[in-house]
Write a structure and sequence with these properties.
By secondary structure, this protein is of the alpha+beta class. Helix content is 31%, strand content 29%. The longest helix has 18 residues. The structure holds 4'-deoxy-4'-aminopyridoxal-5'-phosphate. GO terms for molecular function: D-alanine-2-oxoglutarate aminotransferase activity; pyridoxal phosphate binding.
């Protein structure tokens, strides 16, 4: 497998990550995941924009322009002959020794960039069947809008959900649902879709942008407002969204069926619109 390591394309086993890399020591870095269908990126601009925003929010000076980054990622999927799959890319603040919390001078310490691509086909069967979820307190920090590589809060929540026998963790702060451990969260009640507004408590999902557009096209009303765990448990439908899972029905929460306990008609419609947009951008 070929990967990107700083400005080079190398074999996966040639990459050497220093033990004093600030990503390794402090989780001082940001990342993103973008998906390709039929050998073409879907919503690449939105992912790259979010990456640049995260760099700005953390005062991390990126060593490339948006265009250069897009070119490099496109080369990566071509070289690896990725048809339908995921590209993970991240940057850390580099290797600074001795270990010190203070940001190093960017003139002296260069950031470390890596990217890899993996073939991951669409799992239509899972998108029809749906997944289960468990309600877990959101104990993460207050910059959840930054796609930080520091994911301990997220993975602890996912682990709790798995221990409860569920696929995903639906997170809440004092009873208000924020998002899931690795996706945005949605519910449907009486024909209206609800999802948490953007801000510092959730990641502004790229899939969320696509689904909001899909709902508008389909004439389904959406309210970007907070809903409670109680409201979620009485919802007609629930689903989560991310680049890798698209719009994924949540059919059971804490062991109780959501609505009919099967994929609902609104998420079904959004899935169709999502696929239409994929076909428009990437062909079929
Ligand atoms: N929230 C969290 C915590 C996530 O990890 C993800 C996945 N990156 C999302 C939301 C969804 O973001 P996107 O639609 O851009 O993949």
């Amino acid at each position: 497998m070929k990967v990107i390591w700083n400005d080079k394309i190398v074999d996966r086993n040639e990459v050497k990550i220093d033990m004093e890399d600030r990503g390794y020591q402090f989780a001082d870095g940001i990342y993103d995941v973008v998906r390709a269908y039929n050998g073409k990126f879907f919503t690449l601009d939105e992912h790259v924009d979010r990456f640049f925003r995260g760099a700005c929010q953390t005062d991390l000076e990126l060593p490339f322009s948006k265009e250069e980054l897009k070119e490099r990622l496109t080369t990566l999927i071509k070289i690896n002959q990725i048809d339908t799959g995921n590209v993970y890319f991240q940057i850390t603040r580099g290797i600074a020794s001795p270990r010190n919390h203070t940001y190093p001078d960017p003139e002296v310490v260069a950031p470390v960039f890596t990217a890899s691509a993996t073939v991951v086909p669409r799992d239509q069967e899972k998108m029809n069947r749906g997944i289960t979820a468990s309600i877990i307190p959101d104990t993460r920090w207050l910059h959840c809008d930054i796609k930080s590589i520091s994911l301990l809060g997220n993975i602890m929540a996912k682990h709790e959900a798995h221990k409860n026998g569920a696929d995903e963790a639906v997170l809440h702060r004092d009873g208000a649902v924020t998002e899931c451990s690795s996706s945005n969260m949605w519910m449907v009640k009486d024909g209206t879709i609800y999802t948490h507004p953007d801000g510092n408590l959730i990641l502004p999902g790229v899939t969320k942008i696509v689904l909001l557009r899909a709902a508008e096209k389909a004439g389904i009303p959406v309210k970007e407002e907070t809903f409670t765990v109680e409201q979620l448990k009485n919802a007609d439908e629930a689903f989560s969204s991310s680049t890798t899972i698209e719009a994924m029905p949540i059919i059971e929460i804490d062991g109780c069926p959501v609505g009919s306990g099967k994929k609902g008609p609104i998420v079904e419609k959004l899935q169709q619109y999502y696929l239409n947009e994929v076909e428009e951008q990437c062909g079929s």
